[in-house]
Design a protein that fits this description.
With about 180 residues, the chain is an all-beta fold. About 0% of the residues lie in helices and about 50% in strands.
């Protein structure tokens, strides 16, 4: 599909071409409405106020933040730059804005001397911060221990290692 002609995006908006991957997982069809993000969207055009991504970047973005105006296939979308979660740079995940890339480990029932409530214990994860978006770096640092609710994280893989992307607002507490 060729690029839409004659369009110019303004402000903090992006024109992206989404990689339309199959939504079938182990024989189960996942409805489009349940998919919250896509890998390998390519940035086609950036508005004059965009500062975190450039034309040609491969990104992970929130589908809830995108608009599909251009064609039946829905592969061209408009998106605010705030809807970008991370960039994919040489097969490494680089978080954007207030997103944090972290390496989670086993479920923790206890944080220091604080016991997590049972209804949260199965969902609360300890992780080590690996990379930070620009705004997240003002509050957190690489190597820091963080705790967050796994339901609110974007699960991903980097070099076959399970990782998570989480926003600063979803972090329950830190240690260190």
């Amino acid at each position: 599909m060729k690029k839409p002609e004659g369009f110019t995006v303004f402000g903090n908006r992006l024109l992206i071409k989404a990689a339309m991957e199959s939504n079938v997982e182990d024989g189960i069809i996942i409805p489009e409405s349940c998919l919250i993000h896509d890998w390998d969207a390519e940035v086609i055009q950036v508005g004059d106020k965009c500062r975190m991504v450039e034309v040609g970047d491969r990104i992970l973005y929130s589908k809830n933040e995108s608009v599909v105006p251009f064609n039946e296939d829905g592969d061209f979308r408009l998106l605010k730059e705030d809807g970008v979660i991370a960039r994919l740079v040489q097969d490494s995940i680089t978080p954007i804005g207030n997103w944090i890339l972290c390496k989670p480990d086993a479920v923790k029932h206890k944080v220091g001397n604080i016991y997590l409530p049972n209804n949260k214990a199965q969902k609360s994860f300890r992780a080590i911060v690996k990379r930070l978006g620009r705004y997240a770096a003002k509050q957190f640092y690489v190597g820091q221990e963080i705790y967050f609710l796994i339901n609110n994280a974007v699960k991903c893989f980097e070099h076959d290692v399970s990782m998570c992307l989480v926003t600063t607002g979803e972090i329950l507490c830190t240690r260190g």
